[in-house]
Each structure stands twice: as C-alpha cells, then as structure tokens.
Write a structure and sequence with these properties.
By secondary structure, the protein is of the alpha/beta class. The chain has two domains: about 130 residues, 3-Layer(aba) Sandwich (Rossmann fold), CATH 3.40.50; about 60 residues, Arc Repressor Mutant, subunit A. Helix content is about 55%, strand content about 15%. Strands 2-1-3-4-5 form a five-stranded parallel beta sheet, sandwiched between helices. α3 packs parallel to α4, α7 packs across α9 and α8 crosses α9. The longest helix has 24 residues. About 25% of the residues are buried.
Length: about 220
C-alpha cells in the first residue's frame, strides 16, 4: 500500500544550497518539497500558500529573525510541524538552543544525500534524532527546570512572614539580627526557620539561603 509522500518546507538563505537540497530530497518519491524560503517572511507566506508540511528544514543562520527564533514561533503556532535545524558546524550551544525552541534534531549541511533523506524520514516517523551528548544535555536541562518548578511550588507554601525571614536569611543575617529587624524574639525566628526548613525540605541555613538566592528571593552578601 502506497503512503502519501512526506511534505517538506526548506528554509535557507543560500539559493544554491536550497535548490540542491530540494533536488536531493525529491530524488526519492517518498518525499515532496512543498516550497522553499529564504527568510522568515517567505516561510510564513509559503505556509499560507502551500499548507502545512510535516517537516521544516530550518537553517540556523538566517537574515533578520534567526532560525532559532523562527523555530520557536513556528513551534508555538504549529507544534505538530517537526523542525530539523540545518547547520554548517556541529555547534552544541546553538543546537541545544534550537532544541529548547522546539526543534526535534539537526542536520549538518555537508552530509551525504542518503543521510539527508534518511533524517527527514526519521523525523517524519517521530524517531529519536539526537546524539548521546546532546540528548544528555537536554535531559539535564529539563530536569533542572522541573526541579526549579518544584522548589517554586514549595516556596508558595510559605507564609508571608516565613518568606520575609527567608529573604533575610539569604542575605546572611543571624536569627538574632532577623529578630531585631522584624521586632520579634529570637525564639520566634527559630520557630519560623524550622518551619521553612520543613516546607523547603532542607536541613540547614546554607541550603535554604542558596535556594532563596537561586529563585531570586535574596542576594548573598559580598564575601
């Protein structure tokens, strides 16, 4: 049973490369290039004129709005479209930024034609497309973001007084100094600090202070 060809849109500002890539892809009957574009404006026009592709091959380096920003905008409007970044160099920082923006993978411009076509087919099939190094970075970053979200949820459980004390604790003030500043007893401060530790799931002032600083609740005193 014949399947519909994979619909592709190419976005690259170099006409010679763009045309060569189109010929490379259309050499396989399973792939159909809907259109090509040289910048963001042309990309949006192509989407309106030719409909939504399954795959967009997006150059990282584009004039005006760059490929990463275009990927982010495209992913927000059409999350079902899978974006594969085109890059001349294996720049892990840019690749990582593109993946965070919504790209599903990347393709070096100097790879063999068969690899280009295979990459498009893997992307359309939803198969994993990341190297171990890049995949590891993505997972670590997403875990960091999830951890930060959990911490923020824990902060939301603090009372207004506890949050006030945590901010002062993060500047390095002692219980006695905090008590004097807030006109409460040192023992009352200790009780609040114990409650803060319990809610934030930390066991000392340093960890609580670091967490507060990390989430923007206070600043460390200069050493």
């Amino acid at each position: 049973m014949a399947h519909d060809p994979i619909k592709v849109l190419i976005v690259d500002d170099h006409p010679v490369f763009r045309d060569g890539l189109r010929q490379c892809l259309e050499a396989r009957k399973t792939i159909r290039v809907l259109a090509t574009a040289g910048n963001g404006e042309e990309m949006w026009k192509a989407l309106r004129a030719h409909g939504r592709p399954q795959i967009v091959l997006m150059d990282v380096e584009l004039p005006g709005e760059g490929g990463i920003e275009l990927t982010r905008a495209l992913h927000e409007k059409h999350p079902e479209i899978r974006v594969v970044m085109l890059t001349a160099f294996s720049d892990s920082e840019r690749v990582f930024a593109a993946l965070k923006a919504g790209a599903v993978g990347y393709l070096l411009k100097n790879v063999a034609p068969d690899e280009i076509r295979a990459t498009v087919e893997r992307a359309a099939a939803g198969e994993p497309m990341l190297s171990g190094e890049i995949a590891g970075r993505v997972l670590r970053e997403f875990e960091r973001e999830r951890e930060e979200e959990r911490y923020r949820e824990q902060l939301d459980t603090l009372t207004a007084r506890e949050e006030e004390i945590l901010k002062l604790l993060a500047t390095g003030e002692s219980n006695r100094e905090i008590g004097k500043r807030l006109f409460i007893s040192e023992q009352t401060v200790k009780n609040h600090v114990a409650s803060i530790f319990r809610k934030l799931r930390v066991n000392d002032r340093t960890k609580a202070a670091l967490l507060a600083v990390k989430l923007g609740l206070g600043e460390k005193r200069p050493s």
